[in-house]
Design a protein that fits this description.
Order of helices and strands of chain A: EEEHEHEHHHEHEHEEHEEEEH
Shape of chain A: globular
Oligomer: heterodimer
CATH topology of the largest domain in chain A: Rossmann fold
Organism (chain A): Streptomyces caelestis
Largest sheet of chain A: 6 strands, mixed
CATH architecture of the largest domain in chain A: 3-Layer(aba) Sandwich
Pfam families (chain A): ABC_tran (PF00005)
Largest sheet of chain B: 4 strands, mixed
Number of strands of chain B: 6
Shape of chain B: elongated
Number of domains of chain B: 2
Number of helices of chain A: 9
Distance between the termini of chain B: 89 Å
Number of domains of chain A: 3
InterPro entries (chain A): AAA+_ATPase, ABC_transporter-like_ATP-bd, ABC_transporter-like_CS, P-loop_NTPase
Family (chain A): Belongs to the ABC transporter superfamily.
Structural class of chain B: mainly alpha
Distance between the termini of chain A: 45 Å
CATH class of the largest domain in chain A: Alpha Beta
Radius of gyration of chain A: 21 Å
Order of helices and strands of chain B: HHHHHHHHHHHEEHEEHHHHEEHHHH
Number of helices of chain B: 20
GO molecular function (chain A): ATP binding; ATP hydrolysis activity
């Protein structure tokens, strides 16, 4: 399959900090999860791919367009939908006005077609009932949907979502997952998140980033498989475990190198993720009871 | 609770519609709607339109000189300009204020094009102001008493000020991304507007650097004598607005565009050309023309004969002849003796040597039968003219009428006012103190006349009586009533009144 996004050797420094270090990626249709601890470089990578900041080194293309040139950058932006982390809103706008405004900035100039498109994405985001309400009167979850609708408007081929479910309650997160899953049908979605469940439920592929470098790039099943035979249950916290916590059953779930004869458990994506980060500088994988 | 709906097919957006400039125009329409719906702009327009309608209903007493009416359109749009400055500034800062910059920065329409859209929205408001200005001027021009001609340069000043102020608001947002900058600039503008007239010399060329240079006097001058560099000033304002606007675009990330840099340089050049050209002062030819019009008006006038009266007016005032003739006929019809058929010359005169704001008195005409009429009309000017006509009919010349200090003043005032629709109201209007009792100076375009308290008492009594009866007595005793040194008591008796009780001492 021809990748939508192809990046190689992306590097970026902020002062003395290496935010990205030789990151190479190939993204194609479907939802790709981007996992990583705080400061891993996830948002920086998304901003580079969204053409918000240029990389110091390396290159990438979106649908064959090189954002290194002015014309190429414009073409990339024509195919891009971007939902930044904690997006801002114009509170006096209605959702319709805000998405319409974004649609204009995406060069949708035909009024009738644009308004049809705005209504479509608002409907898709479940905002048809509040499209005329001022954004300042909407809940946090509703606002997040407005931001997603703004990212979706114009039917972009490449959708960049930076922690879209943060701060949402479980029901809202579930609805958002539905939206993202549907958005991933036929387009390339890069989803940055701290929520391993989101990745497990939505993504056909997952990339783990830490310290500005790619630590894992594969399917969720492959990431989960990294923890096969390395998760066990015990009555007390195992001092040899990389991470361990008391479960609701009163027993301890340990992740690491199990002792002989340990009561092995079925690993999860989160176990694989923790083990992937294990041993990295500055990354604390210890989970206290 | 809202529910998620099944996805519907995305609208097809063809590449053809995705053209950057079309997007800028679409965005400009979007921003224009927002700008026009902002409270400060709505309030400013409401005040501007309300004030304009209220003022234009009665301006110049219904007899505007259009070369003055065009300047009258300039001041009020400044209010709209200040509102647009504030709101355009806030519109540009909106993304920063609400932290949408990170999102909008990666959309297709680049920041400099967004700035261009903001500037176009300002231009739309300026255009709307232009429509208001055109409406106000058209209203003045359609008044039956309108004379003269307006200047496109003067009419452009209001809309160009709105454009300049709005562009300044956009530029300010690019230079100082703070919400406090625009209000501060507005305060500075108001402070400057307050101080500038006090600080600048009336003849100073520097005053033309202000957006609006108001000059007005009580008497309109012929267009040829204005000496205002209206077209250059409009060019200066347009160049300045364009310079500010293009600088804002350049500062928004279009600095690499050579064509834009060249356009900005061109706009600065236009500004300089306009600034230099407008500061040259009143041209020599205009100064010479002002002297000619003031000293030898007959050389500049066209004359029209109506019965025994010749009306000589500056070319732009030819249409006023009918108005003057109606008043003069009314006065003459009440006169007696040879005055009814006496040849008269009504000559329009103006003192233009002191510029537009000059209010110098005109020397009374010394030629027999010559009556001075000014360039204003309507309101107090009509009874004032009637007094001048009556003065000449009674005293022979304007100069003699001005020095009158006897009972003839009663005849003059009765002749002037008896045929007026509301004589008592006009009596008060032509007296400097707006009273109808006691002694007072009577308004005149040349030397003022004066009434004693006794004369006022007699005139007031006469005006309250039927006109025809008094007219018969005036005709019957015309020779004695118009004889020099006739006393007020004698005039009262001749006209069938008791001797007045009030004092009969000239001012």
């Amino acid at each position: 399959m021809t990748p939508t996004v192809s990046a190689s050797g992306l590097s970026l420094r902020y002062g003395g900090t290496r935010a990205l270090d030789d990151v190479s990626l190939r993204l194609s249709a479907g939802v790709t999860g981007l996992l990583g601890p705080n400061g891993a470089g996830k948002t920086t990578l998304l901003r580079v791919l969204a053409t918000a900041v240029p990389a110091d080194r390396g290159a990438f293309t979106v649908l064959g367009h090189d954002p290194g040139t002015s014309r190429g950058r414009q073409e990339v932006r024509r195919h891009l939908g971007y939902l930044p982390q904690t997006p801002g809103f114009h509170p006096d706008f209605t959702p319709f006005e805000f998405v319409d405004y974004v649609a204009i900035l995406k060069e949708l100039t035909d009024r009738a077609a644009r308004h049809r498109e705005v209504r479509r994405v608002l409907d898709e985001a479940g905002l048809d009932g509040v499209r005329g309400k001022r954004i300042r009167k909407l809940s946090g979850g509703m606002r997040q949907r407005v931001a997603l609708a703004a990212a979706l408007v114009g039917d972009p081929a490449f959708l960049v979502l930076d922690e879209p479910t943060v701060g949402l309650d479980p029901e809202q997160r579930m609805r958002f997952r539905e939206l993202i899953a549907r958005a991933g049908e036929g387009r390339t979605v890069l989803l940055s998140t701290h929520q391993t469940e989101d990745v497990a439920m939505l993504c056909h592929r997952v990339v783990v980033l830490a310290g500005g470098t790619v630590r894992f790039d594969g399917t969720p099943a492959e990431l989960t498989a990294r923890a096969a035979g390395r998760v066990w249950s015990s009555a007390e916290r195992d001092p040899g475990a990389k991470a361990g916590w008391r479960t609701g059953l009163g027993t301890f779930r340990n992740v690491g190198d199990p002792p002989v004869g340990a009561d092995l458990l079925e690993p999860t994506l989160e176990d694989g993720y923790l083990l992937t980060l294990d041993g990295l500088d500055g990354v604390d994988t210890e989970v206290a009871a | 609770m809202s529910t998620l709906t099944a996805g519907t097919p995305a609208a097809t957006v063809t590449a053809g519609t995705r053209t950057s400039w079309a997007a800028v125009l679409t965005l400009a329409r979007f921003e224009t709607r927002l700008l026009l719906l902002r409270a400060p702009v709505l309030v400013a327009f409401a005040v501007y339109l309300g004030w304009t309608v209220w003022r234009t209903r009665t301006s110049w007493d219904g007899f505007p000189a259009l070369q003055d009416a065009d300047r009258a359109t300039q001041g009020a749009p400044l209010l709209v300009g200040l509102a647009v400055l504030l709101c355009a500034n806030q519109a540009v800062l909106r993304s920063r204020r609400y932290d949408t910059d990170r999102h909008l920065a990666v959309l297709v329409v680049q920041p400099w094009r967004r700035t261009a859209a903001h500037l176009l929205s300002v231009a739309a408001v300026a255009l709307l102001t232009g429509v208001c200005v055109a409406g106000q001027f058209t209203w003045e021009a359609l008044k039956p008493g309108a004379v003269g001609q307006g200047s496109p340069g003067e009419l452009l000043v209001g809309p160009l000020c709105v454009l300049l102020f709005g562009a300044a608001g956009v530029l300010l947002a690019r230079l100082v991304p703070s919400a406090f900058a625009a209000p501060l600039l507005i305060v500075l503008c108001l402070f400057f507007a307050l101080l500038a007239p006090m600080a600048s010399d009336e003849d100073s060329a520097a005053r033309w650097l202000s957006p609006v240079v108001e000059e007005s006097g009580p008497h309109p001058l012929p267009s040829e004598l204005l000496g205002r560099p209206a077209a250059w000033h409009a060019l200066y304002l347009a160049g300045l607005a364009l310079s500010v606007a293009l600088t804002a675009v350049l500062l928004s990330g279009a600095g690499r565009l050579r064509s834009l840099r060249a356009a900005c340089a061109g706009a600065v050049l236009l500004t300089l050309v306009g600034a230099v050209a407008q500061s040259q002062g009143v041209p020599r030819e205009t100064t010479e023309a002002r002297t000619r019009y003031s000293v030898t008006p007959e050389k500049e006038q066209r004359c029209a004969e109506r019965d025994a009266t010749t009306y000589c007016a500056f070319p732009e005032w030819g249409a006023r002849t009918d108005d003057w003739d109606r008043v003069l006929d009314g006065v003459r019809s009440l006169a007696g003796g040879a005055a009814q058929d006496r040849p008269l010359v009504v000559r329009q005169r103006v003192e233009a040597r002191y510029g537009l704001a000059g209010d110098a008195a005109i020397d009374p005409a010394t030629r027999p039968g010559e009556i001075t009429v000014g360039t204003s009309w309507g309101g107090n000017r009509a009874p004032e003219f009637a007094v001048a006509v009556a003065g000449v009919l009674v005293a022979g010349t304007e100069a003699k009428a001005g020095g009158m200090c006897d009972g003839r003043m009663v005849t003059v005032m009765w002749l002037a006012l008896a045929d007026r629709p509301d004589p008592m109201a006009d009596l008060r209007r032509v007296r400097l103190d707006d009273s109808d009792a006691g002694s007072a100076v009577v308004l005149s375009r040349t030397n003022p006349l004066s009434m004693t308290a006794a004369q006022t008492e007699v005139v007031r009594e006469l005006l309250l009586r039927p006109k025809d009866g008094t007219a018969a007595k005036v005709r019957a005793h015309w020779a004695e009533l118009t004889a020099p040194k006739v006393t007020t008591d004698r005039v009262a008796r001749l006209l069938g009144l008791d001797e007045p009780e009030a004092r009969d001492e000239c001012l």
